[in-house]
UniProtKB/TrEMBL annotation:
Keywords: G-protein coupled receptor, Membrane, Olfaction, Receptor, Sensory transduction, Transducer, Transmembrane, Transmembrane helix
PANTHER family in the record: OLFACTORY RECEPTOR (PTHR48001)
Function according to Swiss-Prot or TrEMBL: Putative odorant or sperm cell receptor.
Its membrane topology: Multi-pass membrane protein
Cellular compartments annotated: Membrane
One GO MF term: G protein-coupled receptor activity
InterPro entries referenced in this protein's UniProt entry, alphabetically: GPCR_Rhodpsn, GPCR_Rhodpsn_7TM, Olfact_rcpt
Protein name as annotated: Olfactory receptor 7A10-like isoform X2
Any Pfam family hit: 7tm_4
Keyword Chloroplast among record annotations: no
Gene Ontology cellular component terms for the protein in this record: membrane
Keyword hit for Kinase: no
Phylogenetic classification of the source organism: Eukaryota, Metazoa, Chordata, Craniata, Vertebrata
Species this protein is from: Phyllostomus discolor (pale spear-nosed bat)
Membrane-spanning ranges: 69-91, 134-153, 173-197, 240-259, 280-303, 315-335
Chain's gene name: LOC114503098
Length: 350
């Protein structure tokens, strides 16, 4: 009897101390443990949300039976864009008569258009051919970076070309002094640097976002606004930066273009003869057409798609400024410009 009492007392001393939860009654234990599990899951959720490896580019997935037609159409448009702009670059570089600021900027615009379409169309063609919608997370961020970069650069080059036309028409006697090779190179270099810094900033801010289960992008490429809208973390800083830079880097160049052409119109009105007015204005028609096409399609996409999120209508509209505009630029400049026509004839004649 005495031995059993001693053994039981020793057993109680050897038992580990009870935790605060174990001291509670069983129902209270279950309740507290449940709360702890929920809080643990909530603590882990942001970390799990960021561990994504791919997005889905919906593109034109609703048109299943028309995929071969879309493949052929976009392949032709891409080849026309690359070949047309490449011919402009080769014609300008091979003809010494075209080694002027105007054609220097035009060849830069053609190079940017080739790069712009090459960031989106090849991936879309591969997805159509392989019947896959997948793009990796790294691939999406990279594509988004270059899309932003070349879109802003395109805008800046058009603005520089407007300034070139302003100097040529409003200050013709000082044109070659003002638009010297050093200034032309500096204008293009500054355009490249600003567009690189802008795209780098916006891409790095996207890397800080967390993404959940909805990873479907209703576009055929990783467009910044669509990617940001997929995030399940706070996107307020991204939205502020995105709209501020869009207003600054989109509205600023547009204001510069409008100011340049207001001065050009004033100078043209001062020319006495109608033939002289037509001759001067004809040098601006090609650039005005490209500017109208670029800004018209871009504004149409972003203003018209405000109420059509997760709809393919915005993807179709995006084709206008990402594919159609770069494709039409060589035709606009070559059909309206006799110097380009002669240079192309001499180049192709070789």
């Amino acid at each position: 009897m005495l031995a059993s009492i001693v053994l039981s007392s020793l057993g109680r001393e050897l038992q580990p101390p009870l935790s605060p939860i174990q001291r509670l009654d069983f129902p209270y234990q279950e309740s507290i443990l449940s709360e702890l599990r929920i809080s643990h899951l909530h603590h882990m959720e942001p970390g799990n949300a960021t561990q994504i490896s791919e997005f889905l580019l919906l593109g034109f997935s609703e048109t299943h039976g028309q995929q071969p037609i879309l493949f052929g159409l976009f392949l032709c448009m891409y080849l026309i864009t690359v070949l047309g702009n490449l011919l402009i670059i080769l014609a300008v570089s091979s003809d010494s008569h075209l080694h002027t600021p105007m054609y220097f900027f035009l060849s830069n615009l053609s190079l940017v258009d080739i790069c712009f379409t090459s960031t989106t169309i090849p991936k879309m063609l591969v997805n159509i051919q392989t019947q896959s919608k997948v793009i990796t997370y790294a691939g999406c961020i990279t594509q988004m970076y270059f899309c932003i970069h070349f879109a802003v650069l395109d805008d800046f080059i058009l603005t520089v070309m407007a300034y070139d036309r302003y100097v040529a028409i409003c200050h013709p006697l000082h044109y070659m002094v003002i638009m010297n090779p050093c200034l032309c190179g500096l204008l293009v270099l500054v355009s490249w640097v600003i567009s690189i810094l802008n795209s780098l900033l916006e891409s790095l801010m996207v890397l800080d976002l967390s993404f959940c289960s909805d990873l479907e992008i209703p576009h055929f490429f990783c467009e910044l606004k669509e990617v940001v809208q997929l995030a399940c973390s706070d996107t307020f800083p991204n939205d502020i930066v995105m709209y501020f830079l869009a207003g600054l880097l989109g509205g600023g160049p547009l204001a510069g273009i409008l100011y340049s052409y207001s001065k050009i119109v004033s100078s043209i009105r001062a020319i006495p003869s109608a033939q002289g007015k037509y001759k001067v204005f004809s040098t601006c028609v090609s650039h005005l057409s490209v500017v109208s096409l670029f800004y018209g399609t871009s504004l149409g996409v972003y203003l018209g798609s405000a109420g059509t999120h997760h709809s393919q209508s915005s993807a179709v509209a995006s084709v206008m400024y990402t594919v159609v505009t770069p494709m039409l630029n060589p035709f606009i400049y070559s059909l309206r410009n006799k110097d380009i026509k002669r240079a192309l004839e001499r180049f192709l004649g070789r």
